[in-house]
Amino acid sequence: MKNLKSSMTDHELIIDFMAGNERSFEILINRHKSRLYTTIVLIVKDRFIAEDLYQETLMKILSMIREGRYNEEGKFLPWAIRISRNLAIDFFRKEKRNPMVHSTEDFDLFSVIGHTEESPEKKIISAENTRYIRELINRLPDKQREVLVMRHYSDLSFKEISDLTEVSINTALGRMRYALVNLRKMMEGNLSESRLKT
């Protein structure tokens, strides 16, 4: 049964959970906990706060499913990431903090950047020192940094990113393009922080 449940789709697990099988929810969350947690960490920059917000995210997901308010058939992860992102952003707004890319013991953004397909951007990024790249990405405008992280870590499509950030696909693509252009220029030493394209 355990192996059978593990092979079920997200949607099937949700249906199974709603039918009374608590184990299905546990499998569903374990499948996606890294991405959900990282979404929060990248915004709040604090592991302890992220742990609290992650638990709050799980409670909200659980509550919404039980109340029949989950209607994103086949798209659980983007839906769940949207919840975690909104909770983290709410916290960020209250604290008036500036979200920055942040590494933890469990996650380093630059293992994420390595997930990109073979391209000039990948060659540039992979050739540089991890700490140096992190500093450069932290200098990107917030919206560019957000799209870059969502694309390369959460593995979201630009359609999913546009939905989550409430902008058009073209805008999301443009932010990603500018992020890569800005990174390249900073690496080449031809661009000061004040001249970053937005």
Which key phrases capture this entry?
Rna Polymerase Sigma Factor, Chain: A, mainly alpha, 198 residues, 69% helix, Arc Repressor Mutant, subunit A
Write up this protein.
The protein is mainly alpha-helical and 198 residues long. The chain has two domains: 2-95, Rna Polymerase Sigma Factor, Chain: A; 109-195, Winged helix-like DNA-binding domain superfamily/Winged helix DNA-binding domain (Arc Repressor Mutant, subunit A, Orthogonal Bundle). 69% of the residues lie in helices and 0% in strands. It contains eleven helices and no strands. Helix 3 (22-44) packs across helix 5 (76-95) and helix 10 packs across helix 11. The longest helix has 23 residues, at 22-44. The model is unreliable at 103-118 (pLDDT under 50).
Task: Give the overall form.
Answer: elongated
**How much strand?**
under 5%
CATH-wise, what's the superfamily of the largest domain? RNA polymerase sigma factor, region 2, helix turn helix motif
- Reported by name, the CATH topology of the largest domain is Rna Polymerase Sigma Factor, Chain: A
Q: Summarize the biggest pleated sheet.
A: none
Question: Helix and strand string, N-terminal first?
Answer: HHHHHHHHHHH
CATH architecture of the largest domain: Orthogonal Bundle
Average the pLDDT over all residues and give the rounded result: 76
